[in-house]
């Protein structure tokens, strides 16, 4: 079993056909097919079922997929170490997290591990982020969560050996417009909110999921499509919104929004990675840099 055969195996998995894999690798399809047959003969198993719409992994192929990724990663790490090439870490995050929180992390990483090169991968999908961590497409990812288990915020993580570290708390505030009836009530009760719409980004948004932990399904929801629009609608309308403090500082100071005196969920900025890749260069350095107790 040779590394180039594993690279070809992975290329076929990604591309779906021998022809597409050959194009991606800039090799002849006959060469790719021969390397695959050689790999299958050496293992004594069939790795793909040849279907009319492409190549489908057999159970043996599915087992090899995880091994191939780990072996190729280990080979790359060894090559980088021996050649003393800069270590690269691939960091993914949801777009809001990438814009607000990642620069501080990169600054800390640069100060403590100046030889690390970070390649960022923003995404709008939490599912995509976790799938990319699981597959090895990225080394680690940042998302918002709460509780003791990944997904306690209200989402289902895909199967995988995930590990995580909470880096910092992201404060949330329940806000209304200055003209809203609840803005002048000392201590609103939960029932007081149910006659007003809850304005948020979308049902998959972390802040929306946090609001679901505060309010019953009976409360009417209005999807604005973004935090910026949800904030603008709340200022202009009669709804209430659960928003991160970093997004409403200016509006609170200007008196356009009023923070209500109610307890809100405690969101954490959570770094997630695969436990079996924790010792990889880059991942190890990233964890070292962000685990600074002086943060």
Automatic annotation (TrEMBL):
Mitochondrion as UniProt keyword: no
Pfam families xref list: HTH_1 (PF00126), LysR_substrate (PF03466)
Ranges where the HTH lysR-type domain occurs: 1-58
Highest taxon, organism lineage: Bacteria
Keyword line: DNA-binding, Transcription, Transcription regulation
InterPro entries membership: LysR_HTH_N, LysR_subst-bd, WH-like_DNA-bd_sf, WH_DNA-bd_sf
Record-level Gene Ontology MF annotations: DNA-binding transcription factor activity; transcription cis-regulatory region binding
PROSITE patterns named among the record's database cross-references: HTH_LYSR
Transcription regulation among keywords: yes
Matches recorded under SUPFAM superfamilies: Periplasmic binding protein-like II, Winged helix' DNA-binding domain
Family: Belongs to the LysR transcriptional regulatory family.
Official protein name in the record: DNA-binding transcriptional LysR family regulator
Source species of the chain: Psychromicrobium silvestre
């Amino acid at each position: 079993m040779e590394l180039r055969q594993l690279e070809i195996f992975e290329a076929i998995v990604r591309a779906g056909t021998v022809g597409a894999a050959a194009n991606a690798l800039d090799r002849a399809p006959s060469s790719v097919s021969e390397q695959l047959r050689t790999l299958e003969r050496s293992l004594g198993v069939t790795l793909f079922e040849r279907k009319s719409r492409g190549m489908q992994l057999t159970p043996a192929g599915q087992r090899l997929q995880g091994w191939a990724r780990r072996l190729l990663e280990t080979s790359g790490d060894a090559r980088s170490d021996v050649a003393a090439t800069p270590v690269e870490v691939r960091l993914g995050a949801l777009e809001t997290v990438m814009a607000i929180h990642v620069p501080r992390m990169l600054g800390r990483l640069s100060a403590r591990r100046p030889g690390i090169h970070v390649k960022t991968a923003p995404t709008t999908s939490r599912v995509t982020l976790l799938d990319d961590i699981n597959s090895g497409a990225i080394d680690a990812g940042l998302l918002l969560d709460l509780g003791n288990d990944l997904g306690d915020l209200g989402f289902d993580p895909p199967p995988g050996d995930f590990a995580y570290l909470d880096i910092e708390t992201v404060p949330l505030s329940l806000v209304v417009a200055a003209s809203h009836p609840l803005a002048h009530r000392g201590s609103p009760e939960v029932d007081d909110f149910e006659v007003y719409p809850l304005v948020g980004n979308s049902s998959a948004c972390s802040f929306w999921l946090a609001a679901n932990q505060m309010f019953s399904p009976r409360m009417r929801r209005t999807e604005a499509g973004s935090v910026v629009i949800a904030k603008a609608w709340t200022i202009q309308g009669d709804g209430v919104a659960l928003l991160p403090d970093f997004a409403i500082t200016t509006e609170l100071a200007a008196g356009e929004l009023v923070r209500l005196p109610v307890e809100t969920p405690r969101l954490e900025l959570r770094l997630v990675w695969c436990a079996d890749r924790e010792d990889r260069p880059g991942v190890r350095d990233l964890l070292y840099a962000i685990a600074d107790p002086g943060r």
